[in-house]
Amino acid sequence: MRARLARLPLPVLLLGLTGGLALLPAVHALAADDMDVARGFFYSALVLLIVAVLLGIATSGRPRGTNPRRHLAALAGAYALLPCAMALPLLETIPDTRAVNAWFEMISSFTMTGATAYAAERLAPSIHLWRALVGWFGGLVTLIAATAILAPLNLGGAEVATGRVPGRGILGAAQIGRAEDPTDRLARMALRILPVYAGLTFLLWLGLLTLGEDGLSALIHAMGTLSTSGISGPTRLEGGRAAIPGEMLICFFFLFAITRRAFPGLQPARNRAPLLADPELHLAALILASLTAILFLRHYFVAEAANIETGLLNALAALWGVFFTATSFLTTTGYVSGHWIAGEAWSGLGTSAVVLMGLAIFGGGTATTAGGVKLLRVYALLRHGERELERVIHPSSIGRGGAERRRLAHEGAQIAWVFFMLFGISIALAVALLTVLGVRFESALVLAIAALTTTGPLAEFGTAQPIAFAALSDPVKAVLGLAMVVGRLEMLALLALILPGGRRS
Description:
Layout: H1 2-6, H2 10-21, H3 23-31, H4 35-59, H5 69-93, H6 99-110, H7 125-150, H8 158-162, H9 182-210, H10 215-226, H11 243-253, H12 255-258, H13 279-305, H14 312-330, H15 338-347, H16 353-362, H17 375-393, H18 402-436, H19 441-452, H20 458-461, H21 474-489, H22 491-498, H23 501-504
Helix pairs in contact: 2-4, 2-5, 3-4, 3-7, 4-5, 5-6, 5-7, 5-22, 6-7, 6-21, 7-9, 7-10, 9-10, 9-11, 11-14, 13-14, 13-15, 14-15, 14-16, 17-18, 18-19, 18-21, 19-21
């Protein structure tokens, strides 16, 4: 069975899995006695499964290629086509909806952006579950692709650690033979990652249930945390019954979006290092500690100057709200603590939009579900700056930390800077397109960063007045959907796919 499935193209296999996932909301709606929604999901699942089987039969006889770029092209095709298939249950279950809105909802969920064009009260609980399932499935696909497709091609942040040209395979991989076959590697990593990913989601769900959250909200927030989609159901996180203990538990699981070393099964045995020695974890701790202190003191001193009664408990709650929200946006999840809003009201300063956008741009760790630039690239540039200052003081120095650190500060920093430039160009192009389509510049900037960093809640908390995705025109939604795919796949991977292989060799 595994050998037969391995012969199928990746988009066909993912389409079949999508059909299987659609059965879960059907069962949930059936248990909730919502027959219309259950029927819509069941019929959609049957259609998707039948189409997947027919496509599988039609493509099963094709020869299996060994070019690793084939799976990269298949991954890009999956992000282009799967949201259309995932939108089918929404068209069957949401009254008076349009195909564009359903497609936007699914591409936002599948890329783990978490932007929504529907009011929460308009959607049935089973539809909220479907949104969370699509985001969770997108996180699983991202983890598998990062380790089995992007890393062997020196993409997705691996190029910073290796110092090799992005898009080129690992040196000597061609001589290894079938053990390094891209399809076999993809299947092996999927079987390794899925149990751990599902197990962590189950543990977080169980923990939130224990802390008083209701079953559906706990499951949606657990899937939204592990996938960093930031999707909420009928009840938002800040309005949940788990309160601060639930936020603390979720904050602990943000660790898996900050560093891949915390995720069992992602780190090769030959490169295994202590978790506390991870540079991405060190940088994230520095960023979060600095910003939490700055924002808390900002709130505190303004409240003191205005003679507003603070109190120790209010101050501690505001401190936690700042730390949790900063961690959430650094991992591009976008959950907001209820005490973040209380802290803003306490000081009267309003939203810290620039801070939240900056955190989302930094992003989480490489080979995780987080978006953004990624912490390892920022760390490489910091090390390069430190090395340049050291050379100014001691021109004859050769650098400390061994060959790996020197490679990170030199070749890795060069590639990281190229990525920063491409990321900045992507933001400029997205903003230009949105402004041409009639969006105001401030809103266009927030929307472009939210899409490219896959942090949908920025549209609500990144401006003084929340931006409603439902009010955007269809061309604007199309541009944002394309930007979400670019932000998830990264521009370097798309360039490696588009440029001829001979020019990179």
